[in-house]
Amino acid sequence: MGTNRRYADHYDKLHAQRVADAARRERPIAMTWPQVISKGDKITWIPSSEERPHVKAWINFPSQAVQVKAFVTGWSPCAVEIDFFHKPSFTQYKIWVWANAVTRITKDRS
After folding, report:
1. Alpha-carbon gap, residue 97 to 59, rounded angstroms
2. How many C-beta atoms surround the C-beta of residue 109 within 10 A?
3. Can you give the three-state secondary structure of the chain, one letter per residue?
4. I want to staple 45 with a disulfide (CB 3.0 to 4.6 A). Which of 3, 12, 35, 74 is the partner?
5. End-to-end CA distance of the chain
6. How do the pLDDT tens digits run along the chain, 110 residues long?
7. pTM given for the model
8. Which phi and psi (to 5°) does residue 34 adopt?
């Protein structure tokens, strides 16, 4: 597919602006791998073919903490890996958080 020569400068500037915005966007602060496996127990993964539990989880960003709705993809004794969509930044994340930052959502409360 070709490029639009008539508006090439406009789209080049638009692309550069989107790249700059993405670079400035805050990212969640996740647990490190040594923290996740600190207890030495194995990690339990939920296969993608199975229904994943719905949870609410507290996520730390550099400027604030927010509670998000997420899906659990795995866990260890002290950590839970969650998959969530952060609406303000239009970004999908998969990160590890402390287990006590996660609360399961039951079907009747969702």
Report:
1. 7
2. 9
3. CCCCCCCHHHHHHHHHHHHHHHHHCCCCECCCHHHHCCCCCCCEECCCCCCCCEEEEEEECCCCEEEEEEEEEEECCCEEEEEEEEHHHCEEEEEEEEHHHEEECCCCCC
4. 74
5. 45
6. 566 677 788 888 888 887 777 666 788 999 999 999 887 778 999 998 888 999 999 999 988 899 999 999 999 989 999 999 988 878 899 999 999 999 999 876 54
7. 0.74
8. -60, -30
Cα Dmax for the chain: 60
The two structure tokens encoding residue 67: 């509670």
